[in-house]
Design a protein that fits this description.
Distance between the termini: 68 Å
Number of strands: 9
Helix content: 40-55%
Shape: flat
Number of helices: 9
């Protein structure tokens, strides 16, 4: 009977740690996921370690670990608040961008400061789509560890304004069908309803919306339907 009780307790503690971890991550904001600073990274690892320990360590009181996780999350939130209010604090706590390439020249001293070597820099260039480092005018390491590039003016892609073209501004596509499910709110957003959508589907000989993997409607009221790979893609102009 004891093993069953132990398994039940582990399950309960595991689920609880996941719920608490989720709540704290939401409180710390999406930056914790998409734009980690070095401090965010350290806090995330620490909180994750405490959450894992919470599931199995029965010798430490449950609420001790919850308090520890809350403290780390609280400090992260406090630092985010301070850095939003003070530029000086932002420079100290989150750092400043580092220039790696300036006017086409590699700055060796700054590479060392960023703990980067030439192979790391070349790798970041290739990831950014630049296979010839001589095409780059500036390269800057941001505070979240990513590298931003500005290519030389004669190497950048041709833009419409370079040849005095003014194409119409594109808008966002509305996803009206996702995984075979009709997105009612998105239909309302573009001023349509499900009856109208069903009519358009029948015009394309689609009798069951569940057959559609994705359906999008763009600014020009063009409906594009994506099916499984073997069925391909269809699109039609909407009225």
């Amino acid at each position: 009977m004891q093993p069953i009780i132990d398994v039940g307790e582990i399950l309960l503690r595991s689920v609880s740690s996941i719920v608490i971890l989720f709540i704290l991550t939401k409180l710390m904001g999406y930056k914790q996921i998409s734009q980690l600073t070095f401090f965010d990274y350290a806090v995330g690892i620490t909180i994750g370690s405490i959450a894992a320990q919470m599931a199995f360590d029965k010798d430490t009181p449950f609420y001790f670990m919850v308090i520890a996780m809350a403290v780390y999350a609280g400090v992260s939130i406090l630092i985010s608040f301070i850095t939003n209010k003070s530029i000086k604090a932002r420079r100290v706590l989150t750092g400043t961008p580092i220039m790696l390439i300036e006017n086409g020249k590699i700055i060796k001293k700054n590479l060392n400061s960023a703990h980067f070597d030439l192979n790391d820099l070349l790798s970041e260039c290739r990831i950014g789509g630049y296979f010839n480092i001589s095409d780059i005018q500036y390269a800057i390491m941001e505070t979240n560890g990513k590298v931003s590039f500005l290519v030389k003016s004669d190497k950048r892609p041709l833009e419409p304004y370079d040849i005095n073209l003014k194409p119409p501004q594109e808008g966002l596509c509305a996803n009206v069908i996702i995984d075979g499910q009709v997105m009612q709110e998105n239909l309302k957003m573009i001023g349509k309803n499900e009856e109208w959508l069903q009519k358009k589907l029948k015009e394309q000989k689609v009798n069951d919306v569940s057959q559609v993997l994705l359906g999008t409607c763009d600014r020009d009221n063009q409906l594009t339907l994506f099916f499984e790979k073997e069925k391909g893609t269809k699109h039609t102009e909407l009225e």
